[in-house]
Amino acid sequence: MSVAETPIYPSPAQKRLLIDQLYERILRGPRIDLLSKLPYEVATYILHFVDMHNLTKVALVSRTWNQFSRDNEVWKSVYLYQKQWRIRTPAHQPKAVEAAARHPADEGSSSWSPDQGHGAPQPSHRPLNWRTLCHDRKELEQHWNTVPPKSKLLGHIDSVYCVQFDHSKIVTGSRDQTIKFWDLQTHKCTHTLRGHSQSVLCLQFNDHIMVSGSSDSTIIVWDMDTRTRLAHLHGHTAGVLDVCFDDQYIVSCSKDTTIKVWDVRTHALLKTLQGHRGPVNAVQLHKGQVVSASGDGMVKLWNVGSGQCIRDFIGHERGLACVQFDGKTIVSGSNDKTIRIWEAATGKCLRVLTGHSALVRTLHFDQNRIVSGSYDHTVKVWDMTTGQCTLDLSAGHSSWVFDVQFSSSRIIR
Q1: Cα(291)–Cα(333) distance, rounded to whole angstroms?
Q2: Which of 194, 310, 330, 344 is most buried, most CB within 10 Å of its CB?
Q3: How deeply is 131 buried, as exposed, middle or buried, from its count of CB atoms within 10 A (0-12, 13-18, 19+)?
């Protein structure tokens, strides 16, 4: 191309001038409501490409546009475009419910429950109202940037070491050797379980069973319907520091430096994983793999079936207190006051989060954020993508924070 043929591009200032001139011509010209002249299906299809903020403005233009902007399929596309607002179903739900979750608007068989993590549809006869769903989730997201109201549950007579909750209850384990059930709405204690002879250090439950571990070096499997003991597991030679389970295995770790794998149905000891040189403080089980965190400063990834260590994750400068694993990402907290995010498949450290001034004792994460609790008496919320601390809950505790759990609408600490 010769010099004479070289195109001349307008400068930024010229672009702005051209845009202003074009806008003035449009304003002076005849007003045509093109959207209203289109078939309903075409008009609403166009609105599929409008974001939530502007879709709200569209509703103010006219009655016709307001009608278009309320279309359920339009709001469904807005919701699904927000990848962090996933709809997922718990593993124990039947396949019919899972299918309804994959095609909720088409099947018309799910309703929204905001306390189920990213949001889990529950069987219902009402179709999802995607517009309401979007506004509810937007409001919940905004709550993460402010300090939420707090309630205190009073009943244990000593330190609370572990906590888990679902849509209706909170379960806590304490140094007072008891496990307490609390109504999530009234905050009243509904049941107290006794069985361990020393501190209850860890617990996990689902709809059917609960597994708890104690300083007395034993594990108890409880029936969630009757609140009675199903089994008392002996095998560790020191305190049981963490437990987890799925539909095949119970995995426990101990101050005795070992990890033990038990059959969830027969309660038989299947294998003992050895490799850590210090107390194993935390374990997380996901689809046949276990991640462990130890006082020796190491994170290890294990194959449950073979009992072999797949990979070591090296980087923390002091012992580890907590770890979480979702199959792809590992997040660990340490006595070096940092949180590290790891890529499970490669062992690569993706990010180091700094901000706590003492041991990071507990953490929980989803694809959007990490919530951590520390011996510095604080709970912090971190952006999973940027690693920035977005919320610091420095009030509410006068002592160490031992455990923390969260959903899209609340933090329990």
Answers
A1: 13
A2: 330
A3: buried
Q: Residue 135 maps to which CATH number?
A: 1.20.1280
Q: Is residue 329 part of a domain?
A: yes
258: three-class secondary structure by DSSP: coil
Domain final residue, candidates 84, 112, 143: 143
Answer whether 356's CB lies under 8 Å from 337's CB. Answer: yes
pLDDT for the residue 27: 67
Does 24 map to a domain? no
Reference 272, options 281, 290, 259; nearest CA is: 259
Q: Is residue 307 part of a domain?
A: yes
**The overall pTM is greater than 0.90:** no
- How confident is the model over 26-38, as pLDDT tens digits? 667 666 677 777 8
CA–CA distance, 310 with 288 (Å, rounded to integer): 12
pLDDT cut 90: percent of the chain above it: 47
Last residue of a domain, one of 110, 143, 176: 143
Domain range enclosing 344: 160-412
> Distance between CA atoms of 409 and 139, rounded to whole angstroms?
10
